[in-house]
């Protein structure tokens, strides 16, 4: 069973179904891919009794779900408590999709055994989700992905850079333009979730989804060349810019917490994932072609 209906949930469902697994996808909208082995159910994952009923008989419960970005500190504890209760009641294995916020500001390369030292509200919310699951006694693992890119990604790069680069417009970016940063392709996160669910060595600890590391300017330039678009025009949003934008939309205020330290690369080490789970990173240009080639039209 998969809780969530975004790009990573959809890709995970299709990978399982293509291997002959029966999949039940749970989301408020009841959405998901059209596949004979994928059952789509509309339900609220915070309704623990209903979630438990739907999870009965499942070998594994995957979660890729997250509340609205600006509500994480309030809503993540409610969602994660319901998911964990359903796992306890049914005995299903538990595979979580996480991210890197829980580490807080760090000097990389970041490995999965780094302390979860975030002090900001979103980072602490993410840390608590894992800490409570890990201490619960259930069979659990977490796959931590970096900023997503490629088809289906919902991220700073996809929303604020990709669209503007493809249309030849100026892109304003809340990130240093020439400092290396790690990115995860949706498909690589999904492949890691599936691989972790099937490997007994994966449980009881966290893993990093594969990443590619390059600066925003480099990634935007490669995207433009593949798409035949003009050379990207990029400008960095300052802290003051974000403060002013936050007066119009709460999302902008949330970015202050996750901006990396000035001049510090944000680099993820996923070597253990490659060695133990057998999942590597898809080449960058192959990921970018998913938003520039015929299939993206």
From TrEMBL:
Signal peptide: none
Domain NAD-dependent epimerase/dehydratase per the UniProt entry, residue ranges: 10-200
Origin superkingdom: Bacteria
Residue ranges that the Swiss-Prot or TrEMBL entry lists as coiled coil: none
Name used for this protein in its record: NAD-dependent epimerase
Species of provenance: Nonomuraea phyllanthi
Taxonomic lineage of the native organism: Bacteria, Bacillati, Actinomycetota, Actinomycetes, Streptosporangiales
